[in-house]
Amino acid sequence: MMDRRRLVGLVPGVVVALSATAQLAHTPQPRSAERQAIRHAARAHLFAKYITGPVPQPIVFKIDHLRVQDRYCNFEAIPLFKDGSYVAPKYMADIELNLCLRKIGNGWKVIVDLSRTDVPDDTELASIKRRLPADFPLCLFSPTWRDLLSKSP
Fold it and tell me: Is 74 exposed, middle or buried (0-12, 13-18, 19+ CB in 10 A)?
C-alpha cells in the first residue's frame, strides 16, 4: 500500500481518504503468486467454457491487460499453446479473453465473461454494466473498455 504522505502530495490542496484496507489498482508482477492464481482461474474458465476437446499441449496466455484492485480484477489475454502458436479453431473459437474476476479466499473466480470477437453495441454495453457488481472499479478495464463502459447508461 502506498504511504499516505505520498498520496496527499498527488493533488495539491486535496486530502485523499483511504480505508486501511483499500488497495490501489496495480498489475501483479510476472511469476507472482497473485498473477499465477489469476491465470489459474482464467485457464479453468477457458477449459470449462471454450475448449472443445483434448488439446495437444498446455495452454498459456499472452496477457494484454491485467489490473487488480482490492478483490476485483480485469484480465485480457490471448490463449496460446505453450510453443507460442495460436490455438487452432478446432480446439477453441478465435477470441480474446476478457474476464472480470473476484478474489475468493486465496483464489480467484470469473464473475463476468466479456470475451468476444466484436465491439458490443449500446444495448449489450448496458447489459454488461448491469452484470458487473456495483462496486467493480471501471479503472480496472483497458482504456478501450473503460471508454465504452463509461459512455453506456
Answer: buried
CATH topology of domain 27-151: Nuclear Transport Factor 2; Chain: A, (3.10.450)
Query: Mean per-residue pLDDT for 83-112?
Result: 94
- Write the single-letter amino acid at 69: Q
DSSP codes, 93-150? -S-BEEEEEEEETTEEEEEEE--BSS---HHHHHHHHHHS-TT--GGGS-HHHHHHHH
How many helices (H) and strands (E) in the chain? 4, 4
Q: Is the pLDDT of residue 13 over 90?
A: no
**Average pLDDT of the residues in 24-38:** 95
Q: Which three cell numbers stand for residue 59?
A: 495452454
Q: Which residue has the cell 487488480?
A: 68
How many Cβ atoms are within 10 Å of 149's Cβ, its own excluded?
18
- 68 membership: H or E segment, kind and range: strand 59-69
- pLDDT-derived band at 150, boundaries 50, 70, 90: confident
pLDDT at 143 over 80: yes
